[in-house]
Amino acid sequence: MNELDSLVSSAREAFAQATTPAELENAKAQFLGKSGRLTELMKGMAQLSPEDKKTRGAAINVAKQAVEALLTARRQALADAELERQLKAEALDVTLPGRQQGRGGLHPVSLTLERIEGIFGSMGFDVADGPEIETDWFNFTALNTPEDHPARSMHDTFYVEGGTLEAPNLLRTHTSPMQVRYAVQHVKKYRHLIDAGQAMPEIRVIAPGRTYRVDSDATHSPMFHQCEGLWIGENVSFKDLKVVFTDFCKTFFESEDLVLRFRPSFFPFTEPSAEIDIQFQSGPLAGRWLEVSGAGQVHPNVVRNMGLDPERFIGFAFGMGPDRLTMLRYGVNDLRLFFDGDIRFLSQFR
Ligand code: DAH
What we know:
The chain is α+β, with helices and mostly antiparallel strands. The protein contains eleven helices and nine strands. The protein has helices at residues 3-17, 21-32, 37-43, 50-89, 108-122, 136-139, 177-195, 238-252, 300-305, 322-330, 343-346, and strands at residues 126-127, 133-134, 170-171, 203-212, 223-233, 258-267, 270-280, 290-298, 314-320. The strands form two sheets. It has a seven-stranded mixed sheet with strand order 1-4-5-9-8-7-6. α5 packs across α10.
């Protein structure tokens, strides 16, 4: 192989080894650049005779054209490969099924709250909403809870900074403060009737919402839900509580086969007080007494804090746990599952 042939074949090899345009331009410089091998050969012709210059020049030109052709071919090959790579990366398979937006659903506890609101709504109860950051007054004092009651300690209640006696200073430990908040507004509206000795529209309300306590295990979460109920009038009795609550439970659990038990208990804001237990007669929980709510006749001091005369107005209240009702309804045994936010668990309730 003569010198020029071997130059062309080493250019072919160098171009083939270049895998990027930049590498290819470097390889090109070795042959066609200012001090490239072909350029050097041209310069070397200066001393030749005119005759030799002609033949030598023609031969070098052939070699140069061959190298240029190789270069162009390699450039094209690299460009083609790059285009191919891009097309592959952006490939769109139009035969794939469409991507669906994950469809959300209501949280199981929200489903329970909706159910509770629907059932009590149909019995003429208003639905009220109140602040989760409460004052000491509404959360405890107005509810006849004494200064030294354990619920008022730091062990049981989350206090927030900067609270004064008047200003909100704690995360409400129950929804019971809504009894007084709602009643005060109601009484304000109907003061003229009350003072004139006329009939006041009865207070009939439920107040569902989030509540907070320093507590955490399989059946307690620092944040949980409660739903308060209040019915106050001139002639509301414990019998009404029994009727309303029994009706509620049967509708909620879609079962006529349900027995309720009112077990004597104590709460500062009711007298007498009771715990309400239910018992299913069939199904997986049959035969067990399950506590679902606290209840009682509203204490005269609380009626007074509502702005009403306890000699004239009387009624009952209850406070139940929607989380627990949800666990019973769906057979869930760990409360924490509701608040972990695991979509695999939550999506079962859609
Ligand atoms: N607030 C009570 C609690 O958190 C529950 C309760 C009991 C509410 C009796 C009431 C009631 O309205 O009458 O444990």
